[in-house]
Amino acid sequence: MPEFFAIDMALPSSLPLPEGPCVVLFEALPEPPLWQWLLAAAQANSAHVETNAANVSNTSITSIQHTGKKPLQIIMLLKDEAELDALAKDASHPLSPFAMAASHIKGGQRFHLDDNCWLDFYLCEQNKAATLATFDKASIDVLICATGQFEQTALKLIHQGSVLIGDTKPGMPAMLSVKPPFKPKDISIVGAGVAGASLALSLLRRGHKVKLYCADSAPGMGASGNRQGAIYPLLTPEDDHLTRLFVPAFLYAKRFVESLAHHSLPFDFCGVLQTGHDERAAERIEKLLGKTWPKEVAVSVDADKANHLAGVAIDKGGIYYPHGGWVSPAKLCEAAIAEAKALGLECHFDVTITAIEQTCDGWRLCTPAGDMDTKELVLATGHRITQLAQTQALQLAPFRGQVSHVPTQGKLGQLKTVLCAHGYFTPGDSGSHCMGASYVRADTSVEYRKQEQQENLHKMQESYPGKDWVKDLDISGQSARAGIRMVSRDHLPMAGAAPDVKAIQAQYQAVGHGPKGAQYWQSHAAPVHPRLYIFSGLGSRGLSSGPLIAECLADSLSGTVPVLEPGVMDALNPNRMWLRKLKKGKALD
Questions:
Q1: 90-123 pLDDT, tens per residue?
Q2: What is the DSSP string of 194-214?
Q3: pTM for the complete prediction?
Q4: What is d(CA 323, CA 231) in angstroms, rounded to the nearest whole number?
């Protein structure tokens, strides 16, 4: 049960908090002194915090009393866009810079204050009480709330949490917290692409002990190994899970890349310009533009504006992603792992995992050179994900993609933004551009193919017919790179507990399908392998979705609150393909 502090915004001299990650949720925007008080806690965590609290006298604020390097998650509920705009315009408030950087999207957006402190803005879709009700009740440690209808919902929530700060009712008894003590987990990750590298960093920031194993000799040698990769969202005309994932993930990906800029990391957020290459594609873009998007996400441009943005003749309108751009995926993996190493990451390359076996308290990784044991295991092995007995039934398919390397010559050097139509083409970096990519199902070969090189060129010629700069595209050097992407049927990634397919089949056989089966699965969780997790299926947009999904998977493993809404997290569940059928009483194939 929780312990209550009736403080009426008066700051206590100390505040007992649980060990490990701490989650603080604000129902209303805090006054600057209270915000500075919280940031003082983050400042005690790390010498690298850059906050307005650094210049406040220690006598004017009080600090959370905690052990060093405690991860701190701060959740801020905003009732509507008007409140976000007002905060952005209030230059005197220390939260104003974050509000200015936030987009007008419903749901959560994450900002890192430093390695151990992060801020989540939630723009409520209905009201604050409804939004609060969606949070995992056991995850909130400190709740700062107001009186009224919201407080009633808040009190229901924190009765299963640990601490409440705010206006409490007179005579309310104080009870001790029962939140279990935090223990850092021993977690092993297999895979060093965008998924594995970003997850390692997210887990270490939450205080876990992490080991990373990779079959390759260096990070980012699989699908994450291209010279340049585009960052832009996968949008749909519908307000579906794809859109609700990719909008906040795309915006977070930009911040993630920029946070690693002190490493040797080539990137340029020069924007992405998407146009239709045929009638069907043009109609789809029109549908996308028929929806109102935040200006930071997507804007409509006419042909003249498109020409100006691109720097070369496009002569057609389309959709422009002003915060999009490109990054070197391989270098991004290297930078994330270098950052994680500074926090204690232990890396092992050239390690081939031939099998995994469940032990009494975790998993055993079997290799030709010997076995290693771990408590928790995350498989982020790209196209190798289905090569193990426990994961071979995952509904993921490999798609080969060859990216062509085109030398900068003629008018290609004038290109100022990433172009996306039937294929994509990046501005130059170190004298070359990336053009791609092929998309061949069920093909895991990475050899160079002349036919796919020609197909990549043809896509550009088809997308921008008759344009003089297209004549400067030269593929005669036969320079290209092929990688294998894993794609799910619904094009959503997979992140979460690994399905125990044999147990699912056994329960299905026992229960059957039809109304009885549907009723059973609607009230029972699908079996999973304990302490085994999947992070895969990032497809061709992993640069845009991977970093934020890594954050949310790390939240799930740490007891902190995923910034993606529960419905989206459910849509990422590796069990979802079976559950969709089972919950409807349909027969499994």
A1: 988 888 888 888 887 778 899 998 888 899 998 8
A2: HHHHHHHHHHHHTT-EEEEE-
A3: 0.90
A4: 9
